[in-house]
Amino acid sequence: MIRRVKFLAKEAQLRVKYMTSKDCIFCKIVSGEMKTNFIVETDKVVAFNDINPVSDVHILIVPKKHIESAVEISDSDASDLVEMHRVAKKLVEDNKLEAFRLAYNGGRFQHVGHLHMHLLAGQKVDWKKL
Ligand code: 5GP
Ligand code: ZN
Q1: Nearest CA-CA partner of 102 in 83, 80, 125
Q2: Residue to probe by mutation, ligand 1, list 28, 52, 67, 116, most atoms within 8 Å of CB
Q3: What is the model's pLDDT at position 10?
Q4: I need a surface site. Which of 109, 113, 118, 128 has the fewest CB within 10 A?
């Protein structure tokens, strides 16, 4: 009984650390609760088109783990970040992008509180709209 309680407590801790925030849109996308076509999916990351693109190519690269923002990253998130950049590289190569921009928003510029990198490319990349 005690072992079971300890196990459940540990599981709850892990859930808080790694799992979803209940009201987070990107967690719902990651879990499949909100249907979205993934351009790329790996064990740690998904990439999908932004619903409101500001450039010809506007892809969001999102860790499956719920990390709040670029300034709330810890050492244990290192492999997730590396994977995000690996996915960015793949998207740049697959789409033969000669010029591109990778961006994070933060503070009041960030509208979804789940870390995501914007991959922007195309004729006009409207930085100010992002
Ligand atoms: P932020 O302003 O937080 O850096 O960027 C959030 C981005 O997520 C915005 O560009 C917005 O258009 C996009 N976005 C918000 N909700 C959804 C959604 O439900 N699906 C998709 N594909 N993109 C979304
Ligand atoms: Zn989330």
Answers
A1: 125
A2: 52
A3: 55
A4: 128
Catalytic residues: 116
**Ligand 1: lining residues by beta carbon, under 6 Å:** 25, 36, 48-52, 60, 105, 110-112
C-alpha to C-alpha distance for 8 and 21, rounded to whole angstroms: 19
Q: What is the domain count for the chain?
A: 1
How many C-beta neighbours within 10 Å does residue 97 have? 17
If one compares 9 and 121, the residue with the highest pLDDT of the two is 121
| Ligand nearest to the backbone CA of 30 | 2
The whole domain housing 16 covers 2-129
What is the domain-level CATH number for residue 64?
Answer: 3.30.428.10
Cα–Cα distance for residue pair 94/13, rounded to 1 Å: 39
Q: What mean pLDDT comes out for the span 106-127?
A: 92
b vs e for 57-87, b when ≥16 Cβ sit within 10 Å of the residue's Cβ?
Answer: bbbbbbbbbbbebeeeeeeebeebbebbeeb
4 CA to centre of ligand 2 in angstroms: 28
